[in-house]
């Protein structure tokens, strides 16, 4: 099976490029194994310079030298002491690179302009590439799927531990902190995104930020959480209700909406398979919610890919005509958000197969009421 580096070089050959500059952190890790992260798009832990032939390079600074040398097997680590552009000014002519691809969707505009100015001085063409590495990351191999499976399993273990201790009076912020602390104590690198705890009316905000509002008995509480384990992400949402006694049901409205969203989720999961258009999967869930009169309250796409990044391709939405392929890992997360009342969202992760899909989540909390 070809390595990602071999695949990238095949793309360079096809496009007539002499090299590629890789700046996006997940792409950098995918191609090299280098795990350092960037604190922001304006501060880099390094870039990859991949010539069409020969040894690839990891360019970084003193802070990351030991880590880079330990992790980036097969890459020559070169430190820049006067900045990346000054190093490229030396390396590109030495490598006879005359057409250099760069990740135009990731570089800051000011950085891209400075890079283009440098390349003009070197008589080297700057060729913008979009999603070259991301397209390779769409389909996960067996090893990647096992890492994602482990991430999902640990994420569910954290959820089950925290859910067992949920009580009225705890604040959204306290629950989010407990979740993220438990993730790290159980071995995760950390959350894959900022944990969402949205109780009562706050649940109408799909990406609500936890506040000091206390949880109340009987109201829907949206818990959206994920962690990163060995580089790979998980993402799960459950909408729960603190009830007066075990086995009781939420109020009629909450129960009806939970069942409706679950029906939409099951319809989408039942349709997923290699070869189906992503928009068709979104439509299967959306039709059910729309037919019940809540279409305008389901305003986001049905799901997204998950891997080294918690949000990556493919997108499951009305605009994506692309077809799913075996090995893709996606979320299925229909929702209904009612201003002034709250929200319901249920989210599973699945692996696309030739025959259908494998649901990675085992937790059934409030899924089958």
The CATH homologous superfamily of the largest domain is termed Creatinase/methionine aminopeptidase superfamily
Largest sheet: 6 strands, mixed
Helix content: 25-40%
The coarse silhouette is: elongated
The tally of strands reads 19
Gyration radius, to the nearest Å? 23 Å
Strand percent estimate: 15-25%
Order of helices and strands: HEHEEHEHEHEHHHEEEEEEHHEEEEEEE
Report the structural category: alpha+beta
Average pLDDT = 97
Q: Spans with pLDDT under 50 lasting ≥5 residues?
A: none
**CATH fold-type name of the largest domain:** Creatine Amidinohydrolase
Count helical runs. 10
What would CATH call the class of the largest domain?
Alpha Beta
Q: Name the assembly state.
A: single chain
Your description of this structure?
This protein has 369 residues and is of the alpha+beta class. The chain folds into 2 domains: 4-137, Creatinase/prolidase N-terminal domain (Creatine Amidinohydrolase, Chain A, domain 1, 3-Layer(aba) Sandwich); 142-359, Alpha-Beta Complex (Creatine Amidinohydrolase), CATH 3.90.230. Helices cover 35% and strands 21% of the residues. The chain has 10 helices and 19 strands. It has helices at 4-15, 25-32, 65-71, 84-94, 109-121, 132-137, 142-164, 172-185, 252-271, 278-291; strands spanning 19-22, 47-51, 57-60, 76-79, 99-103, 125-129, 190-191, 196-199, 220-225, 227-229, 232-233, 236-241, 303-305, 312-316, 329-332, 335-338, 342-345, 348-352, 357-359. It has a 6-stranded mixed sheet with strand order 4-3-2-1-5-6. Strands 7-10-11 form a 3-stranded antiparallel sheet. Helix 7 (142-164) packs across helix 8 and helix 9 packs antiparallel against helix 10. It is elongated and about 70 Å long. The two termini are 45 Å apart.
């Amino acid at each position: 099976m070809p390595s990602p580096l071999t695949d990238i070089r095949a793309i360079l050959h096809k496009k007539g490029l002499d090299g590629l500059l890789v700046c996006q952190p997940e792409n950098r890790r995918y191609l090299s194994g280098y795990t350092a992260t960037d604190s922001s798009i304006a501060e880099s832990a390094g870039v990859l310079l991949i010539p069409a032939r020969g040894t690839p390079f990891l360019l970084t600074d003193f802070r990351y030298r030991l880590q880079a040398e330990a992790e980036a097997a097969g890459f020559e680590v070169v430190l820049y002491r006067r900045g990346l552009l000054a190093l490229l000014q030396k390396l590109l002519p030495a490598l006879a690179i005359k057409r250099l691809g760069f990740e135009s969707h990731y570089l800051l505009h000011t950085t891209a302009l400075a890079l283009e100015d440098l390349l003009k001085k070197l008589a080297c063409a700057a060729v913008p590439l979009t999603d070259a590495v991301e397209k390779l990351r769409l389909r996960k191999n067996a090893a990647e799927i096992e890492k994602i499976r482990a991430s999902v399993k640990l994420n569910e273990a954290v959820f089950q531990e925290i859910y067992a201790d949920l009580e009225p009076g705890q604040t959204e912020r306290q629950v989010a902190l407990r979740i993220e602390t438990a993730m790290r104590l159980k071995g995760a690198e950390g959350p894959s995104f900022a944990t969402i705890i949205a109780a009562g009316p706050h649940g109408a905000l799909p990406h609500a930020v936890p506040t000091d509002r206390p949880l109340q008995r009987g109201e829907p509480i949206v818990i959206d959480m994920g962690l990163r384990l060995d580089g790979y992400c998980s993402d799960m949402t459950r909408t729960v209700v603190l009830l007066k006694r075990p086995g009781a049901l939420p109020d009629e409205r909450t129960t009806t909406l939970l069942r409706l969203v679950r029906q939409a989720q099951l319809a989408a999961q039942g349709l997923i398979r290699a070869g189906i258009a992503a928009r068709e999967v979104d439509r299967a869930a959306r039709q059910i919610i729309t037919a019940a009169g809540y279409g305008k309250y389901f305003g986001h796409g049905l799901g997204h890919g998950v891997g080294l990044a918690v949000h990556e391709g493919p997108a499951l939405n009305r605009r994506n005509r692309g077809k799913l392929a075996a090995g893709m890992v996606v979320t299925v997360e229909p929702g209904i958000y009612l201003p002034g009342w709250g929200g319901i969202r249920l989210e599973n992760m699945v692996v696309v197969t030739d025959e259908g899909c494998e649901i990675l989540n085992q937790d059934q909390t409030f899924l089958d009421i």
